[in-house]
Amino acid sequence: MALMITDECINCDVCEPECPNGAISQGAETYEINPDLCTECVGHYDEPQCQQVCPVDCITFNPDHKESKEALLQKYKILTSK
């Protein structure tokens, strides 16, 4: 399942540089996560790094983009092979 940033985001800028896939970018009002690039850090780390550094805990699982760990690992392999 890809992650998403909720409206509680305070635009503190700490999550964006932590994403190994470049899935996080500044949106119109808050940061956003591109579900096509988000692997929940599978293949890179044991836990999503953006969630680890977020001071307001506004990064949650995106119910519209459910993926298994195997699917996330496959996405990781595709993203890192480019």
From TrEMBL:
Q: Which GO terms describe its cellular component?
A: cytoplasm
Q: Which PROSITE patterns match?
A: 4FE4S_FER_1, 4FE4S_FER_2
Keyword flag Lipid metabolism: no
For this UniProt record, the keywords arranged alphabetically read as follows: 4Fe-4S, Electron transport, Iron, Iron-sulfur, Metal-binding, Repeat, Transport
As one GO molecular function, the record gives: 4 iron, 4 sulfur cluster binding
4Fe-4S ferredoxin-type domain residues? 1-29, 31-64
Q: Does the keyword Metal-binding apply?
A: yes
Q: Name one Pfam family in it.
A: Fer4_7
PANTHER family in the cross-refs: PHOTOSYSTEM I IRON-SULFUR CENTER, PHOTOSYSTEM I IRON-SULFUR CENTER-RELATED
NCBIfam families attached to this UniProt entry: di_4Fe-4S_YfhL (NF033683)
What protein name applies here?
Answer: 4Fe-4S dicluster domain-containing protein
Q: Which organism is it from?
A: Formivibrio citricus
